[in-house]
Amino acid sequence: MTIKIQVVFYSMYGHIFQMAEAVAAGARTVGNTEVSLYQVPELVPDDVLEKSGAKQARAAFSHIPLIRPEQLCEISWIRPEECG
For residue 74, with 0-12 CB atoms within 10 Å meaning exposed, 13-18 middle and 19 or more buried, which class applies? Predict the structure, then answer.
């Protein structure tokens, strides 16, 4: 049986992204796993991100897909009744 693992993160400047990458890399070393890396949508307004320098920093991980709520039910440990 393949174990599905989702590493979901939020990172403003990239530090948490780097940790999430390391967690995903470690999980991939375990046999019979399918590991996906996702980020959550940004809620901080663009002008605030720009002023803080975070907009430029976030470009480094803009290739990481955003997770959709329904994808949370695709992991191995969740019980079907928790997903309605």
Answer: middle
